[in-house]
Input
Amino acid sequence: MSDPILSFAPVTSEEFAALCAAAARQTGLTISGDSGAAAKSVPLVGTFEIGWTYSAAQNTLALQCLKRPLGFQAVVRAQLVKLVTSAAPEAKTSSTKAQDLGLDRPHPYFKVRSSRLCSGAAAQPDESWTLPALLKAYGWPVPADDLPGGGVIAIVELGGGWVQSDIDAFFASIGQPTPEITDVSVDGTENSPGGDADMEVALDIEVAAGAYYAATGKPATVRVYWSQDIASAVAKAASDGCDVCSISWGADEASWGVEACQQMDAAADAATAAGMVVFAAAGDNDSSDGGTTPANVDCPASCPHITGCGGTSKTAASETVWNDNPGNADGEGTGGGYSTVFPAQAWQVGAAPPPAGDSYGKGRMVPDVAANADPETGYEIYVGGQATVVGGTSAVAPLYAGLFASYGTKLGYLNPKLWQYPGGFRLITEGGNGYFEVADAPSPCTGLGAPNPDTLAGLGKT
Output
């Protein structure tokens, strides 16, 4: 085998074999693998190492595991292509196939409304929301409430990008000034607009900054952290002094592996100890979270030091669990369930217990909180030069980030306070996410429920 040029994270021999099989299905290439032999490597992502050789003549890709990893989900397709084309010129003739090598990794949680476009008078307010209208429906704080504000908002992105014209158009459309946005590259990843993930980036920035301004009357300060590793981005944001952090990327716990999940929570623990609140989307694939069983939870939302954000379907008249495919555990709807990695948390007072006899997770319940996420009742944003309606639990994390940035700075470890704060939320009592149904208690569909922002403002004073 020639010198390997990619570094990422396979795990056991069995998982490595599964990786090879998945790569074969997605590229159409013949894949072979060896999890034992040693070879020279060029590390790319932390200590995750794998060797590979591509043969254009034989149309094969050979993979070789070199070091025990922490979870191979952190590999980024774009980095693979960059390395293939720069270090293996013979592979350029089949670069499109190499580009399709989709490895398990965190992915964004946005969903586009089926009717997709809206434009001014053509928008249907009973089906989609402008941000100001949604905030008003939730009873959002207003500048006259004189909240402390001042929270710096960190947004973690693993791909995609934003352009100033989209940001300017969005904030002009809702009558707000454009926020101050700074890009921070953690590991060489940069703002790179031009792909599907642009929708995630625009959604995150526009919702977080717009929610903050609505509450304070002051433009938000937003720092976008570009990285191929969520934990590293969270650590960097905390070290930079950010006050809240929004994460809209994730994957089911099994894709991460136990060790990687625990390292993610360790980073969040350190960040909250430094005063930064961390929010993460709970997933958009109902109770399965895209996993192989009907009930899985998403990491990083499952981390005890991160506030997991679930989704609802909100109209002017009602708010229910977001689930566009009722009865389907692997449809389009809010993630949620019980962790197989993290134990039940004592501070989740009153949380519904796992079903009796359940063979899936029995640990920490996810999510903690919820808000509108259904793309059919979605958010009107600007991306790619046009107005678009978008939903997903990835809208909920930045919504809460903007809200809590308005409550002040250095609020830190939020979860125990949220679960013991009377009146801070409105329980969602209708619907389910496939395997789980809501009850008269915080549920593994929508957690504590939708926000009562005026009441939650008291957390900034405790």
User: Anything to note?
Assistant: The chain has a mean pLDDT of 80. The chain has two domains: 13-99, 107-461.
